[in-house]
Write a structure and sequence with these properties.
437 residues; alpha+beta; 8-stranded antiparallel β-sheet; 6-stranded mixed β-sheet; globular; disordered C terminus
Length: 437
Amino acid sequence: MSTTIDTLRFATAGSVDDGKSTLVGRLLHDSKSVLTDQLEAVEHASLSRGKDTPDLALLTDGLRAEREQGITIDVAYRYFATPRRRFILADTPGHVQYTRNMVTGASTAELTVVLVDARNGVVEQTRRHAAIAALLRVPHVVLAVNKMDLVGYREPVFARIAEEFTAYATDLGVPEVTAIPISALVGDNVVEPSATMDWYGGPTVLEHLETVPVSHDLAHCHARLPVQYVIRPQTAAHPDYRGYAGQIAAGSFRVGEEVTVLPAGRTSRISGIDLLGTPVEAAWTTQSVTILLEDDIDISRGDLIVPSKDAPEVTQDVEATVCHVADQPLEVGHRVLLKHGTRTVKAIVKDIPSRLTLDDLSLHPHPGQLVANDIGRVKIRTAEPLPVDSYADSRRTGSFILIDPSDGTTLTAGMVGESFAAPEPVKDETENDGWDF
């Protein structure tokens, strides 16, 4: 019988003061994942603020500015485990100013917990976080209706919020929503079932996190190895060694397999795979390896090694759905840097076909620009060909970021291909506007 314990990566999201940090603190505390000295420090800090009980939010709000303002600013990663599963948790900010951090935290998550204050219901930031979870194709979403103790634990309040959010998320294309009524402050339905909400018969938050089916088998996805470094020691012991090192983004590679190096398109066969200095016959997703080829090919950082029978499209015209995260607007005609995997190329924003309106999920055509926290569609022309997958096929090789070339600021997070906000086809009137590379 296998005793392997798998790992779930999940993120929390929600509007300001919905109780995300308190929920995370409660999860850590009640699952006995807090060290004694940590708990003593929280108790001391809570008493100094005049509180009778420990403020569990202090377990995650580690920055001084966060503690002073009572808000989460940075993404706080926490690692904990139960006998059933290990967890990597990203506690993301709720303030609209830090929505970009939510994109960061949820980009690798397999589940997102969206908190809602039972007194306020679904608000704009709730919709934005649901949209981002859908855009990032997070497969599982938990709606945690928090502060049920402040609405008398009334079932109709929970039912109304759950119905509204589920309908909205379903329209976005979220495949699964699990609604749970909780009180993070007192612990109802977080780790232990609530004694005051006997009308609810579903799982607690922790029980759902422990049992939700999560597939980590990426070995059958499109195999991709972004080259990070070329290893050529040219020593007496290794005079002819030439290896191409990187972390396998998806799929698997085997010795003897025919591969293509993109964007150049040259082909060869794998003559060897080194893993931690040891030759192996095969390697798969997330392993950091060095691949050796039968032929000497001009390969450098930023190239992509793929199976010849399963190569992605190579193009200079990228259309994607993006979440704009910078304070300065993204406008048609902007010159940017596009970072895809380990490759960074110059690019121009050719068109912004549409912007998503969060209230009713309608599309505002050709807005001309995207401002901070906007979600929309963009068309980008790159100076060099890029091998890109659809984000629906590969979250790693279907994503990119746009960078301001003047100061290195991250402007936009992008997902290649169609999305929940796919606009009606529009005529591209900028094909001959003089911006072509």
